[in-house]
Recover the amino acids of this structure.
């Protein structure tokens, strides 16, 4: 129930949202009050969600979290803002409380203030493009494996990249995409239908085969290990890193230790800083690195964090990346 004078501005917003009917069709007014139709409740889903422990819960257009973050310290605030950034669709909105702000947050670059005095922000399409610092060819000839990290917007980017790999592509490809921990992953099924390379969900102690795509399973870190026969996959239930399990840093750092200079590391679209330190670990071990140009990423925060962490070899839009992948595969110049 609302006071009639309170909803005086609602019809205009209703029209601007694209509604085809009158807002007055949805409520009954009497004695200075308006009661909305009870049938509207059928379109509302109420559920518990923990900002402290849960992962991305849905892709949404609007998030309202007013006067909640002020009761938390810096770490849970950063976690919650990261969840908001990953959960919002392209150009989605988030509203914070009067005493809350995105200023000084690591996620500030992911949003544009729309109504600053009301703490209303819109998720940005992209960010500034960093200048590449390229090497002309992969180090030490061929690359034996490529590790890829992505988050929000990552499925779209991977759909552009992975199907472009030819059937004779030699390196193994290991992918971490931030996933809800409580739901099964459909990524192997989705990409099996699109890719010429074999696609698998990674298993513990599974030998890494050349020319094969591996996706990290939900709620497990994916690592690279080695035994007497060669590199193999390992799964871990250790604590989340950057509030994520699987985490990109975990894969990149372990793969760099095993493959050294024969590793390629790639960071794609995403909404937090996971992977930035791992990509530098790849480079320190002599591997070659690539980051999606932030202004081409649906969520630029992850590429921006990777570029801020240190130098990388290639900063490219998605459409230029397949040529680099193929060059890494055959050891040719780029």
């Amino acid at each position: 129930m609302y006071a009639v004078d309170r909803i005086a501005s609602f019809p205009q917003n209703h029209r601007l949202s694209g509604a085809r009917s009158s807002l007055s069709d949805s409520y009954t007014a009497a004695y200075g009050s308006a009661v909305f139709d009870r049938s509207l409740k059928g379109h509302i889903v109420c559920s518990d969600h923990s900002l402290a422990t849960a992962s991305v819960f849905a892709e949404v257009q609007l998030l309202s979290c007013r006067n909640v973050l002020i009761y938390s310290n810096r770490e849970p605030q950063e976690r919650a803002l990261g969840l908001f950034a990953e959960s919002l669709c392209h150009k989605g909105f988030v509203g914070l409380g009067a005493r809350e702000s995105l200023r000084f947050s690591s996620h500030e670059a992911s949003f544009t203030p729309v109504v600053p005095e009301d703490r209303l922000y819109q998720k940005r399409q992209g960010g500034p493009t960093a200048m590449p610092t390229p090497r002309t060819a992969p180090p030490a000839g061929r690359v034996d494996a490529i590790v890829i990290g992505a988050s929000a917007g990552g499925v779209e980017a991977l759909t552009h990249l992975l199907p472009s790999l030819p059937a004779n592509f030699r390196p193994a490809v290991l992918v971490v995409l931030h996933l809800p921990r409580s739901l099964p992953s459909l990524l192997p099924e989705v990409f099996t239908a699109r890719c010429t390379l074999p696609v698998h969900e990674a298993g513990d102690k599974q030998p890494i085969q050349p020319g094969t795509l591996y996706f990290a399973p939900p709620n497990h870190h994916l690592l690279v290990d080695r035994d007497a026969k060669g590199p193999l996959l390992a799964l871990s239930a250790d604590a989340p890193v950057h509030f994520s399990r699987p985490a990109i840093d975990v894969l990149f750092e372990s793969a760099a230790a095993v493959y050294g200079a024969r590793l390629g590391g790639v960071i794609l679209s995403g909404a937090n800083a996971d992977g930035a330190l791992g990509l530098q670990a790849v480079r320190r071990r002599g591997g070659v690195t690539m980051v999606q140009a932030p202004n081409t990423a649906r969520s630029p925060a992850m590429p921006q964090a990777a570029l801020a962490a240190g130098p990388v070899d290639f900063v490219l839009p998605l459409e230029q990346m397949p040529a680099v992948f193929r060059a890494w595969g055959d050891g040719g110049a780029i």
User: Anything to note?
Assistant: Residues 126-141 have pLDDT under 50 and may be disordered. The chain is about 20% helix and 25% strand. The chain has three domains: 1-46, 49-124, 145-330. The longest helix spans residues 74-87.
